């Protein structure tokens, strides 16, 4: 956690240490939880949630239970112990005590897109939480509920619900209708691309609100509009302003001057505890290279456990695209998994143990362009010979959506499978365009779509190869239509630069690390210099969790406890990375150095470090001069500002010893 600001380190260090009870009986053993239940009952009474009455003949009451959680402040301190009374909605009967139930929630894709836009346009991000949100919604149906555990009433009487209590099937719909009606009255307009996104465009700017049940993300450049919105919401609901957005749906968000980092570190650290794998060794990759599904084999007995853990892994892919392909593979066997599939799940669980803080870095580039990459693994499934589609999209240069999906039909050629992948990503790109339009953001057109298959690109641009493509579904030609109307523009990309490759197949750790660097997937908790890694780079230095360095080079073994580097017959084994060129020696214990094209017999220093290029330096360059050049390139390293992803690293001692 070395690179995190102090407030974020404190937050992550405190959350998750309190035990949460699983039942009413367990909660009664603690005064704080007893008081939390009393507070919930007071809220129920104040909102006139129900009336006590005898159960009418022919009616069946739904059950209820207590659910407990802990609310945290942005500092990591406990805000309050929360006890929530929920109805057992699964006992409701359609047509009797409920009808319509649908209520939208914010798409996680929309959340990431909104974050990228906010970062690029320097919009602040705020969060608000509605207290007892579902109790704000009015019930239209006649619903009866049994008395809450521990709060019995007169015998024979039940609760006739007036408000949409948590747990009822129609509760989300009732609350969504209440909130959206309020926003509409304030002049907010619902997005056609995402019905949980509301925007208000005024003379001084725009205000955007994204809704996920009772959690709201607010952003925009109209500060007065944001202030007015918060005031109106507080007048209409019992709502709390949580301040700067830091923790949303289990996603940790850290804002810097030059970007935003999102991860699920706490979620990753909790997984081994839940699965009993605390002592297991981390895996180098989420899935073995050259993986082939073993359809036959001994069936795994605990299917529910398999389904539960795969579900947790699916949620982890919100900020871990490197898990996407592996999770896609195991999720195809939810009904009848084998022991082999269970072993795959265990391997995937071990992979993030080695880098729990890894997440998506969103950099401020003052850019709103949209870019897409698509790829396909032709006939990759050896059982049914179906291909796998993989794609990812970028907004403002930041990764916002990704997907790994098995194609529904068998493709007759690699071009056909790639063409189907182009169709899927084109639909995603068009949707993103509509979402940005609703946010008042004009992206550059045409949208660039990269593909590494020339034949597929020709099919998309021209009605060629009719005999080979006449059987392809009509919807695939949606791509051609969008090219013709100028919405997208296709470009060829070399296979080695195809970042969507990790969503279609199991790759080596070297290829996986290279692509992850390109798409902005990094571990903020490891103190390394951020910089682009090019295919021509000879080496890459990364830090292990325990602070040691591992040097990976083409032809040099990775996994050493210390960095080993050999140049022109010089071999040195050191506890920290040390490079000596002629009379210059610079010891860097934490910096990641990329040296591209470094000749074994060079007489002058040539180094490329996150864009730092130095060539032709005299052999008599002093350490003081070296330090001045380095800090001139990276002034933030000497600023001492904790809000930078590149921290100081004690350059006084590390570089200039």
Quick summary:
The protein is of the alpha+beta class.
Descriptive terms for the model:
657 residues; Nucleotidyltransferase, domain 5; 4 domains; six-stranded antiparallel beta sheet; 29 strands
Q: List the domain count as a whole number.
A: 4
Structural class category = alpha+beta
Please give the radius of gyration in angstroms. 28 Å
Instruction: Give the low-pLDDT segments.
Output: 528-623, 636-657
Give the terminus-to-terminus CA distance. 25 Å
Biggest β-sheet description: 6 strands, antiparallel
Number of strands: 29
What share of the residues lie within helices?
A: 25-40%
- Shape type: globular
- Beta fraction of the residues? 15-25%
Look at the structure and give the mean pLDDT.
79
Major sheet: order of its strands? 7-8-9-10-4-11
Number of helices: 17
How is this fold's topology laid out?
Elements: H1 6-14, H2 24-27, H3 31-46, E1 50-54, E2 64-72, E3 78-87, H4 108-120, E4 124-130, E5 144-145, E6 157-161, H5 171-185, E7 189-190, E8 197-202, E9 205-212, E10 215-220, H6 223-236, E11 239-244, E12 247-248, E13 251-256, E14 259-263, H7 265-275, H8 303-316, H9 324-330, H10 339-350, E15 358-363, E16 370-377, E17 388-395, E18 398-406, H11 414-438, E19 447-451, H12 454-461, H13 466-469, H14 478-484, E20 488-492, H15 509-519, E21 521-523, E22 539-543, E23 549-553, E24 564-567, E25 570-573, E26 577-581, E27 584-588, E28 607-609, E29 612-614, H16 623-633, H17 651-654
Parallel strand pairs: 16-19, 19-20
Antiparallel strand pairs: 1-6, 2-3, 4-10, 4-11, 5-6, 7-8, 8-9, 9-10, 12-13, 13-14, 14-15, 15-21, 16-17, 17-18, 22-23, 24-25, 26-27, 28-29
Helix pairs in contact: 8-10, 11-12
């Amino acid at each position: 956690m070395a690179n995190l600001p102090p407030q974020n380190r404190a937050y992550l260090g405190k959350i998750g240490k309190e035990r949460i009870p699983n039942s009413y009986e367990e909660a009664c053993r603690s005064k704080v939880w007893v008081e939390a239940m009393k507070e919930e009952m007071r809220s129920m009474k104040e909102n006139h949630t129900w009336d006590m009455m005898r159960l009418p003949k022919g009616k069946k009451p739904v059950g209820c239970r207590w659910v407990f959680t802990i609310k945290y402040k942005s500092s990591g301190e406990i805000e309050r112990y929360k006890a929530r009374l929920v109805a057992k909605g699964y006992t409701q009967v359609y047509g009797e005590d409920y009808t319509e139930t649908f209520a939208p929630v914010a798409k996680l894709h929309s959340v990431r897109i909104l974050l990228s836009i906010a970062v690029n346009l320097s919009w602040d991000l705020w969060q608000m939480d509605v207290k007892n949100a579902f109790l704000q919604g009015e019930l239209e149906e006649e619903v009866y509920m049994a008395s809450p555990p521990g709060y019995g009433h007169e015998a024979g009487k039940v609760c006739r619900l007036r408000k949409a209590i948590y747990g009822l099937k129609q509760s989300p719909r009732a609350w969504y209708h209440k909130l959206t009606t309020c926003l509409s009255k304030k002049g907010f307009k619902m997005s056609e691309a995402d019905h949980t996104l509301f925007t208000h465009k005024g003379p001084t700017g725009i205000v955007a609100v994204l809704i996920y049940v009772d959690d709201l993300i607010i952003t925009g450049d109209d500060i007065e509009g944001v202030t007015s919105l918060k005031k109106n919401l507080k007048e209409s609901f019992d709502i709390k302003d949580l301040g700067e957005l830091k923790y949303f749906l289990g996603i940790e968000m850290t804002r810097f001057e030059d970007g935003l980092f999102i991860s699920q570190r706490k979620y990753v650290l909790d997984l081994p505890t839940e699965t009993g794998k605390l002592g297991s060794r981390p895996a180098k990759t989420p899935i073995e290279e050259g993986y082939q599904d073993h359809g036959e084999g001994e069936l795994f007995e605990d299917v529910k456990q398999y389904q539960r853990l795969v579900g947790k892994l699916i949620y982890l892919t919100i900020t871990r695209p490197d898990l996407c392909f592996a999770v896609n593979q195991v999720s195809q066997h939810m009904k009848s998994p084998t022991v082999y599939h269970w072993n795959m799940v265990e391997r995937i669980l071990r992979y993030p143990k080695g880098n729990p803080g890894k997440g998506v870095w969103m950099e401020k580039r003052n850019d709103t362009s949209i870019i897409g990459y698509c790829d396909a693994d032709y006939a990759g499934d050896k059982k049914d010979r179906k291909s796998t589609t993989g794609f990812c999209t970028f907004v403002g240069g930041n990764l916002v959506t990704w997907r790994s999906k098995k194609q529904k039909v068998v493709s007759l050629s690699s071009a056909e499978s790639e063409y189907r992948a182009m169709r899927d990503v084109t639909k995603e790109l068009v949707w993103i365009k509509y979402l940005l339009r609703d946010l008042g953001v004009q992206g550059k057109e045409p949208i660039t779509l990269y593909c590494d298959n020339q034949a597929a690109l020709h099919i998309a641009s021209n009605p060629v190869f009719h005999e080979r493509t006449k059987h392809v579904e009509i919807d695939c030609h949606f791509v051609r239509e969008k090219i013709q109307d100028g919405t997208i523009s296709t470009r060829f990309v070399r296979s080695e630069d195809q970042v969507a490759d990790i969503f279609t197949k199991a790759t080596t750790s070297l290829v996986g690390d290279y692509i992850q660097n390109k798409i902005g997937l990094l571990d903020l908790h490891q103190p390394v210099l951020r910089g682009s890694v090019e295919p021509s780079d000879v080496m890459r230095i990364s830090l292990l969790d325990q602070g040691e360095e591992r040097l990976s080079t083409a032809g040099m073994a990775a996994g050493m406890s210390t960095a080993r580097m050999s140049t022109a017959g010089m071999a040195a084994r050191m506890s920290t990375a040390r490079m000596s060129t002629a009379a210059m020696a610079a010891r860097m214990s934490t910096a990641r150095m990329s040296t591209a094209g470094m000749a074994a017999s060079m007489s002058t220093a040539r180094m490329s470090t996150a864009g730092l290029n130095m060539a032709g330096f005299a052999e008599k360059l002093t350490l003081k001069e070296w330090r001045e050049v380095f800090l001139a390139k990276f002034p933030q390293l000497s600023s001492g500002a904790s809000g930078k992803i590149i921290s100081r690293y004690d350059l006084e001692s590390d570089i200039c010893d």
